[in-house]
């Protein structure tokens, strides 16, 4: 993912509310499954890490992105933003900016 695409997704993420909360039990298989299903429907989601969660939000973000095969867009404070392009063409809502081609001299 390019920095331009990441910046675009960060801009979109500013307007959405967290749909999941990661608490004391941290990352469970059921939690990962629910996040994966939400990513297929929405493509871009925000997760809030609660105060009673002992794990680091950045580590949680990396763990969830690996298990859901998604992109970790950003972690700000206790908010995690994830992106994954929907497999189903009908569910695709986000059109990422094209990656710039490198020029050779």
From TrEMBL:
One of its GO terms (molecular function) is RNA binding. PROSITE patterns: CRM. InterPro entries: RNA-binding_CRM, RNA-binding_domain, RNA-binding_YhbY, YhbY-like_sf. Keywords: RNA-binding. SMART domains: CRS1_YhbY. The keyword RNA-binding applies. It holds the Pfam family CRS1_YhbY. Residues 1-95 form the CRM domain. This is RNA-binding protein, YhbY family. It comes from Eshraghiella crossota DSM 2876.
């Amino acid at each position: 993912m390019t920095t331009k695409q990441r910046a675009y997704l960060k801009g979109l993420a500013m307007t959405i509310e967290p749909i999941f909360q990661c608490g004391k039990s941290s990352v469970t298989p059921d939690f990962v499954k629910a996040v994966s299903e939400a990513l297929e429907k929405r493509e871009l989601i925000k997760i809030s890490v609660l105060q009673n969660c002992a794990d680091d939000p950045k580590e949680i973000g990396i763990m969830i992105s690996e298990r859901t095969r998604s992109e970790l867009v950003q972690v700000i404070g206790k908010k995690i933003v994830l992106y994954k392009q929907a497999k189903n063409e009908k569910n695709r809502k986000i059109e990422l900016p094209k990656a710039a081609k490198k020029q050779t001299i």
